[in-house]
Structure formats: C-alpha cells, structure tokens
Amino acid sequence: MKGPREEIVYVPCIYRNTEIRKPDYLATIDVNPNSLSYCKVIHRLPMPNVNDELHHSGWNACSSCFGDASKKRNRLILPSLISSRVYVIDVGTDARAPRLHKTVEPVDMFWKCGLANPHTSHCLGTGQIMISTLGDPLGNGKGGFVLLDGETFEVVGNWELPGESAPFGYDFWYQPRHNVMISTEWGAPKRLANGFNPADVKAGGHHGHYGQRIHVWDWTTHKHMQTLDLGEEGAIPLEKGDWAAEKVIKVPNKKVEGWILPEMPSLITDILISLDDRFLYFSNWLHGDIRQYDITDRRNPRLVGQGKRIPGSPQMLQLSLDGKRLYVTTSLYSAWDKQFYPEMIKQGSVMLQIDVDTVKGGLTLNENFLVDFGQEPDGPVLAHEVRYPGGDCTSDIWL
C-alpha cells in the first residue's frame, strides 16, 4: 500500500460486436495528474486478428513468486474469450509502449487440453501460468484449467485431473496457505457468443446452458472436492462466486470465510477488497451504481459509499494501492453490451476515477478525470479491465 502512485494503466479495448471491423487492442493510458497527457491514451497495441474479444488479463509473475529473484512481472497475459487465442505482451522493455511477445494459438489449447474460451489468468508459485476456460472446442460448457510454461509460454497441459473438469468455467482464485482453490461458472460459450437469452438461464445448468455452482478444489492434489449449488432460480455465480473465490480467501488473521451476495434485481459484475481488508467494493451493472462497504466487522458489513448512475453502467473496478482512487470502466462483454446498453456500442465506453474517503468511507466522482473511448482514432470502442504495471489490488495471490 506504500508503493508508488500509479502513473499509467493498461486497458483491453474490444471492437467485436461493434460496427467497426478492427482488431482489439491494448491501450496504455496516462493517469498521472501532473502529466501533459493526463487522461489520454498514449499508446495502442493492436492484436494481429479480429473478433478476439480480449477480456481479463493477468501477469507472468505475482506475489506467489515472492523471494524468487529470477521472476519479473514483465509480461501481461491476454486471453481472448471468443477466439481462444492467448496473447503474451511484453510490458518490461517499454512500459509505456507494450509490444507483442508471443501468440498462443487455439489449436494448442484444443489438442493438448481439450479446452477453449480462456477467461482468467493467474501466475503460480511454480512459475507457470494458469488460465480458466469456459468450454470445450465445440462450444459446450467445460470448466477446466490450462497451464502455460512461464518462460516459453507453451501450453503444458491441464491443471485439473482427467475427468474432473467442472460442467462450466469462469473465474478462479487459489490460496496455498489454505490448500484450496475456488472456481465459478458462467455458461456454455455457444450460448454466450451472440448474446443473452433469459430462457437459457431458466433452463439451468442441467440443460447445458448456464451454470449455477461454485467448485472447491484441493490445491495440492488438484482434486475436485466439493460443489456448492446456488439453486435453479436463474442464479449465475459470476462474481457472486468471485467474491468467495477471489477476494474473501484473503481475509486477515488466517480466517477462511466466504459470503454469497443476497439476491438482488441486478447483475453484480465485479468485486474487490482494499489491500488493508477494510473496504469492499462492487459494481451493480444493471442498477448502474457502485457500492462501498466497510467490512471491518466481517459479519456486519456497512454500506458507507454509493456512486450515482453513469452513462452505460459501471463494470470493472480497480483500486489504487493506497485505496484512495477507484478506477471504473463500463463494458462487460460485447454481446451483452449490445443488448443491455446499445448506445454504448455507438458511443463507446468510458473510464472514470472515483475519489475514496478511506477514513469514514464515501465515494466522490473526480470531475477532472474522464477517458472517453468514443473518441478513439478508429471509432468508438469497448474498454474492459484495468491493470497497473507492477501489480494491483486484484492480480496478486498472497501466500
């Protein structure tokens, strides 16, 4: 938390499902208020292909490699949700102007792992990189995990044991200190590819459309240990499960606790906890707001801050290391953006910055900060996740 203030951030920008047939790209944005290019995109790295649907990114090394001087956080891993490619980006040579280091083609993932549609990437203490997947090469649901070599970035194989993949895949978080990994479910890629159909959710996981479960894995043996079913009332875990999978395992005092959000007429699409474990934030994509909870008393969270509705809707969140600045982007997934917020397809998404009261709690929009992706040179684009060079609040596994 005492690290240097962020000066640039990386944001994947997506053209799939817009009217512009251009490759997705990685944008580098200046967030230093003392810079002449503040709030500007200072570099764009286009991918070699179209319709990739860049989504979540991860690092080749993180705090799980602590103490290994040979490891450097110099490669950003960019899985493509639809094309099943994985791009490895060199951010170490020139952090302000990243370059493409390697492309892992879909065929390697198909043939070596029987998996497709990579979603979330995390580095491991072994030096390998682990990526969750949504499906198999035919577009059916299949929650497995691909391992990449951390030096060559070649596909090594599956993390899960043969025959133990989950029915659906999505997000995951591991914690060796508790010998546990938790993963969540989204849906079958062939159902997600072209948009959202409520009938698919109503059909439930037993019909091969959308998932409704959280999975618990033994981290040492890779064995699937337990399934938590959220019921067939149209529940899709998404970051509901992500709260349990990704954030709560990190609670202090070595406690292992998990919460499931109460049912709400909304879609909670991102959740994070500040590095001091005091505040929890989530974005409420259908309601169009952001909420801040004081979780000092673990069993009695208090709502202490709430952001107002914005054009489009708040989606991905990233908090500064000191907890004072919350960055927000508005694109969820291009096919769903097109359905729920069609004006965002035409106007592009935005990136906002919210000032956080770290004493009493509270959120205030920084009116001097706006990155308007509707003004991009090749036309309006959809901006998704935010990453800082050197690491951030949502990418590190703390051992």
From TrEMBL:
<dbReference type="GO" id="GO:0005829">
    <property type="term" value="C:cytosol"/>
</dbReference>
<keyword id="KW-0653">Protein transport</keyword>
<dbReference type="GO" id="GO:0015031">
    <property type="term" value="P:protein transport"/>
</dbReference>
<keyword id="KW-0813">Transport</keyword>
<dbReference type="Pfam" id="PF05694">
    <property type="entry name" value="SBP56"/>
</dbReference>
<keyword id="KW-0539">Nucleus</keyword>
<dbReference type="InterPro" id="IPR015943">
    <property type="entry name" value="WD40/YVTN_repeat-like_dom_sf"/>
</dbReference>
<dbReference type="InterPro" id="IPR011044">
    <property type="entry name" value="Quino_amine_DH_bsu"/>
</dbReference>
<comment type="pathway">
    <text>Organosulfur degradation.</text>
</comment>
<comment type="function">
    <text>Catalyzes the oxidation of methanethiol, an organosulfur compound known to be produced in substantial amounts by gut bacteria. Selenium-binding protein which may be involved in the sensing of reactive xenobiotics in the cytoplasm. May be involved in intra-Golgi protein transport.</text>
</comment>
<dbReference type="GO" id="GO:0016020">
    <property type="term" value="C:membrane"/>
</dbReference>
<keyword id="KW-0560">Oxidoreductase</keyword>
<dbReference type="GO" id="GO:0008430">
    <property type="term" value="F:selenium binding"/>
</dbReference>
<keyword id="KW-0472">Membrane</keyword>
<keyword id="KW-0711">Selenium</keyword>
<dbReference type="GO" id="GO:0005634">
    <property type="term" value="C:nucleus"/>
</dbReference>
<keyword id="KW-0007">Acetylation</keyword>
<protein>
    <recommendedName>
        <fullName>Methanethiol oxidase</fullName>
        <ecNumber>1.8.3.4</ecNumber>
    </recommendedName>
</protein>
<dbReference type="GO" id="GO:0018549">
    <property type="term" value="F:methanethiol oxidase activity"/>
</dbReference>
<dbReference type="InterPro" id="IPR008826">
    <property type="entry name" value="Se-bd"/>
</dbReference>
<keyword id="KW-0963">Cytoplasm</keyword>
<comment type="similarity">
    <text>Belongs to the selenium-binding protein family.</text>
</comment>
